[in-house]
Amino acid sequence: MSHDTTVVDPRALRFGAAATTAVLALVLVTPSPVREVLLAGQAVIFALGVFVSLAASPWSWLFRTAVRPRIGAPDRTEDARPPRFAQAVGLTFALVGLAALLAGSTTAGLVAVGFALVAALLNATTGFCLGCELYLTTRRLARTLA
Amino acid sequence: MTGVQVLVVALVVAAFSAAAMRWKNGRFTARAPESDDSERLEPGDIGAPLGERATLVQFSSAFCAPCRATRQVLGQVVSLVPGVAAVEIDAEAELELVRRMNVLRTPTVLVLDAQGRVVGRASGAPTRDQVLVALDVALSA
Q: Which residue range or ranges hold the Thioredoxin domain (chain B) (predicted)?
């Protein structure tokens, strides 16, 4: 495994996860069409993290401009690849949820959002990265099915 | 209303998961050495010689933030306890071994005795003290 890679401030990840949790909670409690717009917005934020960089997310920008100047530099940094993979998992759930909501399968859509919310909330409160943990499981499944 | 119900369930699930993980992460479960060959690792399996007294085998993957911390903890333990070796295995490259040892998460740490028998395992990042205690059990067995 290579170790020369982009690093991130773990506090920025926790901040982003907390903001993501808040948006997903709003998706669950607001009526249509507000929830679809909010969920589409969150999907775009996930996509920025996956396809551009974690720093491209607006939550990361908000952390850098409003939070980090007050709390100073981090005492450690983390590999950016695991959280970036987790953003891809979040994007998948957001897109599945959005497709289900738009197709009229409201319950299925909201449950998909609920899964993403659990993952984001765990990340925000404990630093645990569900998407990262799922990586090996998906590789094992892919191997079994192949 | 369904959305509010999903939100409540999600909050409860997250709270229980957080509590369960806090309890389980890094906690070693000891197991009696068995004659079963699937519970015994040879140098050929892990791609490195066994430690003289015990071996710590860490399964890692690229998308694993706590793996780096675990690697450092095991490195400290190896320098503290003579006769103990640490081996890191890229889980993605060794999927056969991953399945055989039923590794579900990274990091997973196995404690092998001098004969390569699996005498303890933990998933999630362990603390240095947790590793030292598990080694103590392995070495005194």
A: 26-140
